[in-house]
Amino acid sequence: MKLIITLALLAAGHAHIIKPACDLLSIQSIIYQKEVLKENVNDPYQMAIDYNTNTLFFSFSAANPITEVDKFEQAYLNLKTNKFHIISGIIGGFAATVDNNNHKVYLGGRNGIYEYDYEADKATHVNPKGYSIWQLFFKDKLYYTAYPQERVYTFEGGNSTIVPELRHTMVQLVALDNDHNMYFSNSSGLFRLNKSDKLIVKLGEYNINSFTADINGNVYFSTPSAFYNIDKKKNVHQLADLDDVFGLVVDGDNFIYGSGDKIIRLTPTTKKNC
Fold first, then answer.
1. What pTM does this model have?
2. Are strands 4-6 and 200-204 parallel, antiparallel or unpaired?
3. How many Å apart are CA 268 and CA 90, to the nearest integer?
4. What is the average pLDDT across 234-256?
5. What's the pLDDT tens digit per position in 122-143?
6. SS3 for 228?
7. How far is the C-alpha of 155 from the C-alpha of 259, rounded, in Å?
8. CB-based contacts of 145: which residues, under 8 Å, 6+ apart?
9. Which of 23, 79, 143, 171 could form a disulfide with 34 if both were Cys (CB 3.0 to 4.6 A apart)?
10. pLDDT by residue (tens digit) across 172-229?
């Protein structure tokens, strides 16, 4: 049986709004300018960046005109041109990740995993007998979590394999750092599966709604009210206190997050006052 160890949260450098209704935000003594990149996309979630094309992939909820029940759509937003496009052909599109080394975009839906082709604007179903995908994360291979199983799997060569160390552990969201330690969340909080000794360590009772990694492989996560990062010593640091956060990605020095019906970018600025 794996040992579960509880560690204390290490938090520093919280963000604060400079003034109410101000579009400037201070994070660890750096001032950031808020910019709305896209409006009228309800609950933008499960974000991923293709750094090769400066494209942001995400899911959002849209009303079904026939059933009048919300459904999930998958879309992308070009961060340079601001081109917005809804991706068709995915049933219940909900998850996205990018293999930036091999220029591959993976999307997840209610019936499995798809690979997206920009030129053909086509999503190809690569595991037709797949589970309903909750989240996707690419490191050295493709990792995914499934609903309602709440387990984590790898997908290689057309085959899915459950991660053996977590076979009996509930997993909703997952990420890996550069040392291949696996961070995962469930209804009990945030945990780490150590690569070296296979111990499971509890890091705190966070209500996590997204994991992401920047272009250098540094891991971040969000809750509905904050951003966090995990440093090279495997410590957790709170970066920002914000309202109504649905998901997070990191693009260089910029933070991009979903909030309400908007996608917002935070960019460092030399401004000091609103």
1. 0.89
2. parallel
3. 36
4. 94
5. 999 999 788 999 999 999 999 9
6. strand
7. 31
8. 133, 134, 135, 151, 152, 153, 171, 172, 173, 174
9. 23
10. 999 999 999 999 999 999 999 999 999 999 999 999 999 999 999 999 999 999 999 9
Rounding to the nearest 10 degrees, give the CA dihedral for residues 238, 18, 60, 41.
Answer: -170
Place of tokens 């492989």: 217
Is the alpha carbon torsion for 232, 235, 25, 135 positive or negative? positive
Rounded Cα gap, residues 105 and 86, in angstroms? 15
Question: Taking a C-beta distance cutoff of 8 angstroms, is the pair 94, 109 a contact?
Answer: yes
Measured CA distances, 168 to 4, 85, 122, 149, 199 (Å)? 14, 39, 36, 11, 14
Under DSSP, the state recorded for 199 is -
List phi, psi (to 5°) of 166: -115, 25
pLDDT of residue 138: 98
